[in-house]
Amino acid sequence: MSDIDDLLTNYGELVRASIDAKLSDTDNSFNNTVGIKLTKNKLLVWLNEPSTLILNVELKNKLEQIISSVLYPAFVVKHKPGLTLIPRLEQPPESARALAFELHFGVYDRLKVNGLDDINVYYNGQKLAIALMRDYYWIPSMSPHMAVQSITRGGKTTFLRYLAVNCSGYAKLAVKNGAVNDGANPLVVIDPKLDADLRLTALKLNSVYICPDFAKSDSSFIDSVCQQLKGIVDLMQKRAIQKKKQSDIKSMSLS
Question: Out of 162, 196, 214, 227, which residue is the most buried by the measure of CB atoms under 10 Å away?
Answer without folding.
Answer: 162
